[in-house]
């Protein structure tokens, strides 16, 4: 997947709207492939953990819960010292989400203008790829990362200690957005 993938749920546990935004990441990488209706179940699961409402977990598909150790490996959540699950991603308001989009659009345009000629030259004269990539279709070889700003902001917030304090692995490229 390239770009942003958003899973949204309305009216869940007191929130008007909840969205989980993943950037340039496949759902299976995030551990969301344990349920037939995985996106919905996974969003409920993550939001329940965020709220600390473990009683809601009983309503989720057992396959999702059985895969918890694998989900922990994706660093979307972790167990605290008492063994309680906690989410490991930023939680922002919907207003913050739209501010993020506005900034992303503004700076994407500036970068596109500044580097347009170099990008056009690269497309006209692509880099010679190693043999192991020759079987990859052209549309994937030159696919751009179209949502690098959210990933960069998540990483910067982690580096500044705004979340994931003491966490030394890469920050998951995921944001949970909540409208109360």
TrEMBL record:
<protein>
    <submittedName>
        <fullName>Uncharacterized protein</fullName>
    </submittedName>
</protein>
